[in-house]
Design goal:
alpha+beta, nine-stranded mixed sheet, 17 strands, eight-stranded mixed sheet
C-alpha cells in the first residue's frame, strides 16, 4: 500500500509486559501470526493477517511498566513539522521525533484532553499492508471527556474537515478529502473515572460474536456489545492485560446511516 495521506491512521502497536501472552491471545481472537522479534528495536514483533503486516506488539522499555494500551499512528510527511503543530495547538510531545532505522520516523504525543497517539513518517515501512479484512485494522475513535479540546486540536494539526452526527450522543467524524478517517466520541459517565481518554482501535473479524467468545474464554473482558449498527456488528473488549480494543464484522450491517452536519 502506498504512503497514506497526512492524518490517515497508518499503524497500530501495543506494549505488553507479557508479550507471549499477548501473541497467544490475539493469535486466537484475530487469527494473527507473528514475525521474528526485532532485537535491534526492543524486540518489536510484527503481527500478520494472511501474510500482511497489520500491527505490532513490543515489551515495555526498562522502567516503563505502564498499563498496556493500543497506540494508533497517524501519517505525516514530516514529523518535525507535525511536532511543532502539536505544541502550537496545546498538545504535548511525549516522545520527540526519532528515526527508526530506515523504517521511518515517529513521535508520541498527547492531545489537550489527554488522548495519547503516535505520528509516523514512512520510510521503508509504509504502515498497514491490509485494512478492513479479517484480522486487520478497520477504524478508530478518539474517546475523550473534553470533546471541544480534541475537536479544536486534531483539525489544527492534521488536514481534517469535520462532521457532527445528528444524534443524542456527541459523535464527530474527521475527514480527509471527504472520506472519514477517524471518529471522536464523548466519554459519558458510563466510563469509570479511572479510565483515561484513549483511542479505541477496531479490528475486523468475520464473526463478531465468535470473536467475543474466543476473547472472553481467553481472559478478555467484554465491555460493550455485541451491537448491530449501520457500519457493522461490533463489540468493545479489554484483553487480559487491560488493553482496550474493539472487533467489528463490517459485513453485518443494520439500520440507516446517521445524518451528518458539516462543521464550519
Amino acid at each position: 500500500m502506498a504512503v497514506e495521506p497526512e492524518g490517515t491512521p497508518c499503524w497500530a502497536d501495543a506494549m505488553f509486559s507479557d508479550v507471549e501472552g499477548a501473541k497467544s491471545f490475539y493469535g486466537d481472537v484475530l487469527g494473527w501470526t507473528f514475525g521474528e522479534e526485532s532485537t535491534e528495536f526492543g524486540n518489536y514483533t510484527q503481527a500478520y493477517a494472511n501474510g500482511k503486516a497489520v500491527a505490532a506488539v513490543v515489551p515495555p522499555m526498562p522502567g516503563a511498566e505502564e498499563q498496556s494500551a493500543w497506540c494508533l499512528y497517524l501519517s505525516s510527511p514530516d514529523v518535525m513539522a507535525t511536532a511543532a503543530r502539536i505544541r502550537d495547538n496545546g498538545g504535548e510531545v511525549l516522545m520527540e521525533p526519532m528515526q527508526v532505522g530506515d523504517f521511518g520516523s515517529m513521535l508520541l504525543a498527547r492531545d489537550p484532553s489527554g488522548v495519547v497517539f503516535g505520528v509516523w513518517q514512512a520510510g521503508t515501512h509504509e504502515g498497514f499492508e491490509a485494512k478492513a479484512v479479517p484480522g486487520a485494522y478497520c477504524w478508530a475513535e478518539v474517546y475523550t471527556r473534553e470533546p471541544e479540546k480534541s475537536d479544536a486540536f486534531f483539525p489544527a494539526v492534521f488536514p481534517y474537515t469535520a462532521q457532527q452526527m445528528e444524534d443524542e450522543m456527541d459523535f464527530r467524524l474527521f475527514n480527509i478529502d471527504k472520506q472519514p478517517v477517524l471518529g471522536r466520541m464523548q466519554m459519558t459517565e458510563e466510563f469509570p473515572p479511572e479510565v483515561p481518554p484513549y483511542i479505541n482501535v477496531y479490528f475486523t473479524v468475520e464473526d463478531c460474536d465468535a470473536a467475543v467468545t474466543r476473547a472472553t474464554e481467553r481472559g478478555g473482558v467484554l465491555r460493550f456489545g455485541p451491537m448491530d449498527t449501520p457500519f457493522g456488528r461490533f463489540a468493545a473488549l479489554s484483553d487480559p492485560q487491560g488493553a482496550s480494543f474493539s472487533v467489528i464484522d463490517i459485513t453485518t450491517t443494520k439500520g440507516e446511516m446517521p445524518k451528518l452536519t458539516d462543521v464550519p
